[in-house]
Fold this protein.
Amino acid sequence: MTLLIISPDYASHLFPLATLGSAWLDAGERVVVASGPATAGIVTAFGFERENLQLGRGSNPGVIRADEQPRGEDDALRGFFAATRLGMVETLRFQAQARGADLLWNPVGTARAVQRVVESVRPDHVIVDHLAFSARLALASAGVAHADVVLGHPTALTVGSEVYGYPPAWPTCFEPDGGDLAALASLCAGVRDSFTAQWNDALALLDPGAPASSDAFAESGDLLLLNYPGELHDDARTRLLPPHAFLGSAVRGEAPDPQVQAWLAESAQPVVYVSFGSFLSVRSDVLARVAHALRGLDVRVAVALGATSPDELGPIPASWLVRSFLPQVTLLDHAALAVTHAGNNSVTEALTAGVPMLALPFSTDQFAGAAALEAAGYAVALDPNAAGAPEIEAAATRLLSLEPEVRRRLAALSASLRADPGPARALGTMVAVA
């Protein structure tokens, strides 16, 4: 049996997809990953075969930097980073305006490249990143059965009256102007319509007899796999989803890191893990405020700097662990608190470890993800552009002394996610459906 995994050339996308594929490899099956060259090392580390496939202009081997991107993509990335400094609505507006180039890059040419990979690999099962729209066009138009995996918050697939790019929920710390929200909703509706027209134009070339879509953002594969705990998803919304399975989380294994292991063994003080992921680590101003806030607490801190220079954090206590990249899963297993941008990998890995979160969402589905965590009591959400060090310190203090009932529920969710991990759920569901 052969599994084909189709992923954009971004580490944050490939890691969870490859982790799902590890269940096939452990079962003695063949796994082939089709992705770009920047993430080739990740494919090799997992022990998979690889097919070269470029699904977009950009790439990210682990930490993204604008000056390492192709011409055009570098300016788009700088524009996105600048928008995050202006606020929630401004960031979502920027992302909506860039959506066509981001998500449906060279759709017909890319789709035909995907079809050539499928013909060469001849897989029994196919899983594809939900946001790889050109790849999903290829599979749907060629009649290739596949599961698409939503790696972000489930609202990345719109249902009912939702409009892609307009968050159906956001944390209470954000109070956007009503007029600005109306303008954003109108913009997102227009983008949906133009994006759907592009999808239908490409679909007509790839499969002239295929019915046109009324909303390309609401399209999904034969099976929808959501890398998210179903326990946090609203039941009414769940009933609107197409055939699906909640995977809970896809927590990857990590090689031992001697420096990190030694640091963890040095003290019994509570550990706070800080990371804004591979993209938002560029927001050194927010990381500096977080560092300033945590210096006043009786904790040891591990900071994954990403693109930020350590000099930008201010004085670093000798007891802290500060590096560009840190083994996130390992540190979450020992953490009392995670400070995060509320990206879905960080959220699901922290929930699996039973760690409460201080969420500072910047973009896209991070707002809906942080709102769900806040509603469950597992996080305090703050506006990263507005929260000062005293507010961050107060939130961290509150989370370090989580109410017993909330801690009990979080521990129960952690136990459930560990007992039935995402890779096993994905393999079992796909074999059962097949």
In short: The longest strand covers residues 30-35. The CA atoms of residues 248 and 420 lie 8 Å apart. The first helix runs from residue 11 to 26. The chain has two domains: 2-247+420-433, 258-402.
